[in-house]
């Protein structure tokens, strides 16, 4: 008897990460990570322009970061789908060494060699490289993909990632939330009945989701996180500490030297990663600076215990967030059957130790923190359109609503709303009598629109007051809006514009001035390349 033909579909699962990207594929119902052409299982999410003017993607791009920081784009995941004048982008502009500019529709964009590129173009290059690598490895064309995104990604960000996939030549069959994909990799076809918590501490963000697993039904109960808590914050603590040590020894401030700072950043991250395996490391960086013609070196010993002391409060913050998310469903740490780890920073021994203490059990071994999201996305891709497929019941991680008077935010779809779902409301009267009705849509946790993300504006004729509007969330957590046409039922409407509304522009300017005044009133602190360095302690 001849063996059964291999069962595989032309679809891959992609974890498009802040730091690295991972791609997986399913064959005979078994998901596997696809190695890159260099044999590694992950591809750095970095795009660069070489000195010769050619594009570099992945490891080759990352390698030139040190010598060509202005032309090397990393961390695109934190910028994609965001407005240029949003608080997050303005904050990141002072962190990143490349230029971030305003794109044609007010979105954040980047420049490379004097030309403007959109973030979907940048991430599209990473995805394009992934496609090439996977097609070469599997020796066949792969036209479809399931791409994962953080659960807290808003509508703009999800759409931008879909666009990046399209630009790379993929038909993006589904956008899936990363923790849901991780849960799938853990529980698929295992017939489990458990409550699990996905603890995702990555390079830049912390994400937590609580799920109920019942066979192949994966139901998200609650989700939350902090978009400014991740591995870089741990690195920054080491960087601060090295700078202070160097200042004490040499009375030289290295924070003003971008090349020295980049070397210290690399050294700090490498030391942190080594301390996961060994108890002591030496950070040694020869010739980082000169003083009166003499070379100065960085040479400091760092122990795991010291690293733990420097970062304990960051680890504790993750548990405050876990408890808050659990509390939203009246659950506590004791209700969780398994903790699944995702993200490189979750490998830190202190994190694992504190998880054991906090949840009363060690985190689940056997689910690879770097690979499980891509594996889960691939499993989802493989099961789409299958009769015995998985059922995902996901939730909205951040409310969606509309601006009201005084720049306030009225929630229409609330946090933890299961998807797909629909909520209706009635059109308010126009701001001025006789004018068209303008509805500005936002997404975020704050009651003030300046702190939320602007999605777009809808426009209706003045006489439409009181008619029904539906906000519908599809299974990818994307917003679809429909509007009641008399005698015709509900009709889908698109945004009239995505340009920042005047009211928001004014509110942001006011907020910016306020922050500048606050910063001016704190002369003891200064913004460094990678965060706050406390001058007062030197
Ligand atoms: P991710 O975004 O999931 O790729 O996570 C990347 C982050 O994990 C970076 O901040 C890395 O420095 C960190 N990381 C990777 N491996 C380790 C390790 N073995 N121990 C501690 N942190 C790590």
Describe the structure using short key phrases.
single chain, disordered C terminus, Actin, Chain A, domain 4, 538 residues, binds adenosine monophosphate, Substrate Binding Domain Of DNAk, Chain A, domain 1, alpha+beta, six-stranded mixed beta sheet
Account of the 3D structure:
There is one protein chain. α5 (178-187) packs across α10 (372-383). 29% of the residues lie in helices and 32% in strands. The chain has 538 residues and is α+β, with helices and mostly antiparallel strands. The radius of gyration is 24 Å and the shape is globular. The protein has eleven helices and 30 strands. The strands form eight sheets. Strands 1, 2, 3, 4, 11 and 12 form a six-stranded mixed sheet that branches. Strands 18-13-14-15-19-22 form a six-stranded mixed sheet. It has a four-stranded antiparallel sheet with strand order 21-20-24-25, with no helix packed on it. Among the domains are: 231-308, Actin, Chain A, domain 4, CATH 3.90.640.10; 400-500, Substrate Binding Domain Of DNAk, Chain A, domain 1 (Sandwich). The chain starts with 10 loop residues before the first strand and ends with a strand. The structure holds adenosine monophosphate. Adenosine monophosphate (AMP) binds next to α6 and α7.
């Amino acid at each position: 008897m001849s063996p059964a033909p291999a069962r595989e579909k032309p679809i891959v699962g992609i974890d498009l990460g802040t730091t690295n990207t991972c791609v997986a594929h399913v064959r005979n119902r078994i998901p596997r990570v696809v190695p890159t052409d260099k044999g590694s299982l992950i591809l750095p999410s970095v795009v660069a322009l070489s000195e010769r003017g050619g594009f570099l993607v992945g490891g080759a791009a990352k390698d030139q970061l040190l010598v060509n920081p202005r032309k090397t784009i990393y961390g695109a995941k934190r910028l994609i789908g965001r407005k240029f004048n949003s608080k997050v982008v303005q904050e990141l502009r002072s962190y990143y060494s490349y230029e971030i500019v305003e794109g044609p529709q007010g979105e954040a964009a980047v420049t490379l060699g004097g030309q403007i590129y959109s973030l979907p173009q940048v991430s599209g290059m990473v995805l394009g490289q992934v496609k090439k690598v996977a097609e070469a490895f599997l020796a066949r064309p792969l036209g479809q993909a399931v791409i994962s995104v953080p659960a807290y990604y808003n509508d703009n960000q999800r759409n931008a990632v879909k666009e990046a996939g399209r630009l790379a030549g993929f038909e993006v069959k589904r956008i899936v939330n990363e923790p849901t994909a991780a849960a799938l990799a853990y529980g698929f076809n295992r017939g489990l009945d458990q409550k699990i918590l996905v603890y995702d501490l990555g390079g830049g963000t912390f994400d937590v989701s609580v799920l109920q697993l019942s066979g192949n039904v994966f139901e998200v109960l609650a989700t939350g996180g902090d978009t400014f808590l991740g591995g870089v914050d741990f690195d920054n603590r080491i960087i601060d500490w090295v700078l202070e040590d160097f200042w004490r020894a040499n009375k030289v401030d290295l924070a003003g030297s971008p090349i020295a700072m980049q070397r210290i950043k690399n050294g700090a991250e490498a030391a942190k990663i080594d301390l996961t395996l060994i108890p002591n490391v030496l950070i040694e960086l020869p010739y980082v600076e000169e003083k009166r013609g003499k070379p100065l070196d960085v040479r400091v010993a760092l122990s795991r215990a010291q690293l733990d002391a420097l970062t304990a409060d960051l680890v504790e913050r993750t548990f405050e967030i876990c408890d808050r998310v659990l509390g939203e469903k009246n659950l506590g740490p004791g209700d969780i059957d398994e903790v699944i780890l995702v993200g490189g920073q979750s490998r830190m021994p202190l994190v694992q130790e504190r998880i054991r203490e906090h949840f009363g059990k060690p985190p689940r071994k056997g689910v690879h923190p770097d690979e499980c999201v891509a594996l889960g996305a691939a499993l989802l891709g493989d099961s789409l359109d299958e009769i015995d497929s998985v059922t995902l019941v996901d939730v909205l991680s951040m409310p969606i609503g509309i601006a009201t008077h005084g720049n306030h935010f009225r929630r229409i779809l609330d946090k933890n709303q299961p998807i797909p779902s629909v909520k209706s409301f009635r059109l308010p009267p126009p701001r001025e009598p006789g004018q068209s009705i303008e509805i500005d849509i936002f997404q975020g946790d704050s009651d003030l629109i300046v702190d939320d993300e602007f999605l777009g504006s809808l426009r209706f004729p003045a006489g439409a007051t009181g008619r029904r509007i539906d906000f519908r969330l599809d299974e990818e957590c994307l917003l679809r809006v429909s509007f009641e046409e008399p005698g015709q039922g509900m009709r889908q409407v698109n945004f009239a514009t995505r340009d920042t509304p005047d009211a928001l522009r004014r509110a942001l300017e006011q907020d910016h001035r306020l922050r500048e005044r606050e910063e001016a009133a704190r002369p003891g602190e200064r913004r460094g390349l990678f965060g706050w360095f406390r001058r007062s302690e030197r």
